[in-house]
């Protein structure tokens, strides 16, 4: 009986010692796991790299260097995030922030050419064929500046201004009369026609014409997202000025025998509204870009025409000079733009280069009667969104 009690006591003591050993082992194992995980997080050291024969070991020189590098990288990330947060981006969006707060600058040019609907600058009567040939205006593609400057805040709202201008002349026209062809010029101002013409072989017709257009926009804008595309919707005011000039003369030797000059001027302001869109094409940095804009302007216009040697019957019934001055006028302007853009994020902002096809339609223009004036051409722009 006593032996049995001793055996039971021995088993109980053994169980107690085993339980104590297991408890201490579990506690030490947990401490070692926590220490190892902390070392992995701070220095990038994998737990398997810690020797199993030691519960704690001083980091080696390589481990200390790696730990310091990790700390420096963390500090750089914090500084970068702080910089971009101060510019209106969310944390860690620095390289991918599409719409950072700050200035936007777009410096561009458009190789633009005017098109005038059913307008002509000269006529040629051909008695050989019995036809009257109309000679269109001969404008070419010329460089025109296009500049945009804006500022956007944290709330995606902003303000921007824009300028575009065209100031070029058409290619001059010189035509010499022959025994069967007689060049001339015809013009209708309001409802009053006028014309000059060569009258004998050897007479020379010379024609020059020019066109100036300037637009200035000031508008509020709002950025947003729609179906994966970045959208900028805007509305504001536009000021525009248009000046068309035309000069022609018929010379017989050194003596002018006829001339016809006319001009059209329009100056007005009104509302403008539009939208710009860009859609990324994968991760290449390329994007499809497009824009649409409409403006309705109200202002004043002036038409003038002076004719010497008018050959339209009855020429005596119309004075040589017609003036339609300080008249109310309304003009609509519609624009469409489409193209491709390459952009790249930098610490200074998103830098981009853009190629587009630009088009415009003016409703109260043309020459010299009231027709339509259009512009089209290839645009090239460089810019930055800061």
UniProtKB/TrEMBL annotation:
Keyword annotations for this protein, in alphabetical order, are:
Signal
Q: Which domain of life is it from?
A: Bacteria
Task: Tell me the leader sequence span.
Answer: 1-26
Q: List, alphabetically, the InterPro entries matched.
A: Major_OMP_Legionella
What's one Pfam family the UniProt record gives for this protein? Legionella_OMP
Q: Under what name is this protein listed?
A: Uncharacterized protein
Q: Which organism is it from?
A: Stieleria varia
């Amino acid at each position: 009986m006593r032996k049995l009690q001793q055996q039971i006591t021995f088993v109980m003591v053994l169980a107690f010692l085993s339980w104590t050993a297991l408890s201490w082992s579990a506690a030490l194992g947990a401490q070692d796991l926590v220490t190892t995980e902390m070392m992995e997080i701070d220095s990038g050291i994998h737990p398997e790299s810690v020797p199993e024969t030691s519960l704690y070991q001083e980091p080696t020189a390589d481990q200390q260097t790696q730990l310091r590098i990790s700390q420096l990288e963390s500090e750089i990330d914090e500084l970068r995030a702080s910089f971009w947060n101060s510019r209106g981006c969310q944390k860690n969006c620095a390289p991918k922030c599409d719409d950072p707060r700050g200035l936007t600058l777009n410096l561009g040019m458009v190789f633009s050419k005017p098109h005038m609907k059913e307008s002509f600058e000269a006529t040629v009567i051909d008695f050989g064929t019995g036809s009257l040939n109309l000679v269109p205006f001969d404008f070419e593609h010329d460089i025109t500046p296009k500049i945009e400057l804006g500022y956007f805040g944290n709330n995606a709202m902003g303000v921007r201004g824009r300028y575009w201008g065209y100031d070029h002349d058409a290619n001059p026209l010189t035509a010499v009369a022959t025994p069967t062809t007689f060049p001339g010029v015809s013009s209708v101002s309001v409802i009053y026609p006028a014309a000059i013409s060569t009258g004998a072989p050897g007479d020379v017709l010379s024609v020059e014409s020019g066109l100036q257009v300037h637009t200035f926009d000031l508008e509020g804008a709002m950025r947003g997202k729609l179906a994966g595309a970045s959208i900028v919707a805007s509305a504001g005011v536009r000021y525009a000025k248009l000046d068309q000039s035309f000069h022609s003369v018929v010379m017989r030797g050194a003596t002018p025998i006829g001339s016809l000059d006319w001009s059209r001027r329009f100056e007005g302001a009104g509302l403008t509204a539009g939208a710009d869109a860009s859609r990324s094409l994968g991760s290449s940095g390329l994007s499809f870009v497009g824009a649409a804009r409409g403006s309705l302007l109200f202002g004043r216009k002036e038409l003038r025409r002076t004719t010497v040697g008018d050959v339209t019957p009855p020429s005596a019934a119309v004075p040589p000079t017609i003036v339609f001055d300080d008249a109310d006028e309304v003009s609509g302007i519609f624009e469409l733009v489409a193209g491709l853009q390459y952009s790249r994020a930098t610490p200074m902002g998103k830098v981009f280069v853009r190629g587009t096809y630009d088009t415009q339609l003016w409703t109260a223009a043309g020459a010299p009667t009231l027709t339509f004036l259009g512009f089209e051409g290839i645009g090239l722009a460089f810019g930055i969104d800061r």
